[in-house]
Amino acid sequence: MPFSLIGVAKKKGSSKMSDFINVSEIFGENVFNDTVMQERLPKKVYKKLTEVIKEGKELDPETADVVAHEMKEWAIEKGATHYTHWFQPLTGVTAEKHDSFISAPMPNGKVLMSFSGKELIKGEPDASSFPSGGLRATFEARGYTAWDCTSPAFVRQDAAGATLCIPTAFCSYTGEALDQKTPLLRSMEAINDQSLRLLRLFGNTTSKKVTPSVGPEQEYFLVDREKYLKRKDLIFTGRTLFGAMPPKGQELEDHYFGSIRERIAAYMKDVNKELWKLGVSAKTQHNEVAPAQHELAPIYAEANIAVDHNQLVMETLKKVAGRHGMCCLLHEKPFAGVNGSGKHNNWSITTDDGINMLDPGKTPHENIQFLLVLTCILKAVDKHADLLRESAADAGNDHRLGANEAPPAIISVFLGEQLEDVMAQLISTGEATRSLKGEVLQTGVKTLPDFRKDATDRNRTSPFAFTGNKFEFRMVGSNDSIAPPNVVLNAIVAEAFSDACDILEKADNFEEAVHDLIKEQASAHQRIVFNGNGYSDEWIAEAERRGLPNIKNMVDAVPALTTEKSIALFEKFNVFTEAELVSRGEILYENYAKAINIEARTMIDMAGKQIIPAVIKFTTALANSINSVKAACDADISTQTDLLKEVSALLAEAKEALAKLSEVTAKGGTMGEGREQAIFFRDEVKTAMDQLRAPIDKLEMIVDKEMWPMPSYGDLIFEV
Ligand code: ADP
Ligand code: MG
């Protein structure tokens, strides 16, 4: 049936219930997935392509041509006029350059739609303005995008029509990675190789491939678009730079898991629909702790696909919000004093035949392979805590990590009672002989079923928590790509596996050697395990005693990338060269300084052009009213004059702070890019920003609400 007819038939069928979503019908309908490939590609071509995808074989030009042609035909049926190589440069967002399928006009004036294997495989965007951290001088501006066939192409429909998006990696002319995807793919190869080595030692001969599985939980805020447009800080920086706390905050915790309001529910429904069409398995949604804060979690997928899908989730959350008269804020801390947003990166390692290497089984003490994997992970996290911390470093995330909020900046691992008990046995006697069991939970209500509890409770304050058969890395910023933390996780665990295999492969008595190694690793890296409250002051002191790093901000986190141990790690597994690491550090410093610079300039603009003029109007009105009262009678006007004095004093303080902020921001702007500039922005500019904010937030509490030039926190977070 021609496509247009299918379209009509579908419309007819669904017209009665326009709101009805048939999930299984729409799921993945815009994805060039395995089913579509199987249907459309000649058998031989399909077989070759799956070998490329699954076994990493080379793609030959003839196969690429056939795949490209079918992909184009399929996309055109979906209404696509253009295609784009979709990539993730180091700007923090995805990039794309659209080309239409039309080829040069024929003598009869018509055009053909064409798309070759070459165009599918390789793109050459003029990439000179993407950050390269000095890897590429502008005179050598060539950059290439290369098709990543392990992440399926998809058609995206939006106001531009429909576009065939081809996930690609982005490299320089000399092969250096300029994006998030290239190192991720390299790190996936590393963990695959080392995991297979380890599995073979335990007699596994059947698993052919091991991949990291990732499920990111995405938090976000929704605000009304009209109100959003009245706040320059939200427009330019994604967060509020001024704002007094409303009378009610999140103290009642009545928003968390609260019933979802109509407007939000309609939005979530649309978001899900869009994501399902793109093959993103959006699964869980709920209100979060802060008012106006929500969460979306998909079902976990292979790391590479999870990273791409998370970008699509973020794009979709923003795009759909516009349609509902709202704006989606992905910033880590849109409102001071209210919980911020993060992303929980759930991570495990799974074989192609379905074995999760992080599954302890019912009796972890007997599962030697699991104990080895677990202690290797402890070693990896302990040795490279600074790198993990760095992977979540971001100017916005500085407002969460180590700044009175979840999670703390100190990396530690939560194992839970059961595993901690097994570890304690291992360390004290060298052998674990029992595993704590989950007891039966009695509800005390006859009609409710009693059930067996998990052997371990949850811990919400740990940055790196074992949650049954996966680790949950909770530091990642809500706005950030999840690629860097997964690159680090894959690489550091690959290294620990490799070290273990080096020893065990040589051992005469494997059983004994494994036991010794587990015990040795458990004891040596005991300090990284912490099951208590990660938010408490006692923990900060205790962590210091244990010698664990407490890296409080992004600028201090960056050097972790280029330590000797980091360079050795990444070079050994071909994830990054030293030059790539240095360049990434440079980009991070630049990004940091730019972010703070924009925030400072936005504050200067808002304070100078909006807030101070409004306060002056208020004081003028107040002074006029004092004079009128004085002229009319001899009533006591001391309250009014006191208020006028208070406002005038705050105004003077604000004026002075504004002058100071303008001065340091200008100075920061003239400095050369790099670490020194980033430090200047952190120490001088941020301090001056705080000094300007303080009097202005106090003024907001005094000045007539009608006169305040922008919506308040209360307006923004309670009236969505
Ligand atoms: P929570 O109770 O922690 O908020 P959610 O259900 O919101 O849990 O999110 C848990 C995430 O972890 C989901 O994305 C889920 O698919 C993912 N997940 C579950 N099992 C695994 C696994 N073995 N490996 C990686 N991710 C997993
Ligand atoms: Mg969740």
Give a short overview.
This protein is α+β, with helices and mostly antiparallel strands and 720 residues long.
Describe what you observe in this structure.
- By secondary structure, this protein is an alpha+beta fold.
- It contains 23 helices and 17 strands.
- Strands 7, 8, 9, 10, 11, 12, 13, 16 and 17 form a 9-stranded mixed β-sheet that branches. Strands 1, 2, 3, 4, 5 and 6 form a 6-stranded mixed β-sheet that branches.
- It is globular, with a radius of gyration of 28 Å.
List its salient traits.
single chain, nine-stranded mixed sheet, six-stranded mixed sheet, about 725 residues, alpha+beta, binds magnesium ion, binds adenosine-5'-diphosphate
Give the cofactors and ligands: adenosine-5'-diphosphate, magnesium ion
User: What is the radius of gyration?
Assistant: 28 Å
Uncertain spans: 1-17
Please tell me what the overall shape is.
globular
Question: Layout of SSEs?
Answer:
Elements: H1 3-14, H2 23-26, H3 34-40, H4 43-55, H5 61-77, E1 80-87, E2 95-100, H6 117-121, E3 122-123, E4 143-147, E5 154-158, E6 161-172, H7 181-201, E7 210-224, H8 225-229, H9 232-237, H10 262-277, E8 282-287, E9 293-298, E10 301-302, H11 303-323, E11 326-329, E12 343-351, H12 368-383, H13 385-391, E13 413-414, H14 417-429, E14 440-441, E15 451-452, E16 464-466, E17 471-473, H15 483-504, H16 510-524, H17 537-546, H18 554-557, H19 564-572, H20 578-632, H21 638-670, H22 675-702, H23 713-718
Parallel strand pairs: 1-6, 13-16
Antiparallel strand pairs: 1-2, 3-4, 4-6, 5-6, 7-9, 7-10, 7-11, 7-12, 8-9, 12-17, 14-15, 16-17
Helix pairs in contact: 4-5, 7-15, 10-11, 12-15, 12-16, 13-15, 20-21, 20-22, 21-22
The structure holds adenosine-5'-diphosphate and magnesium ion.
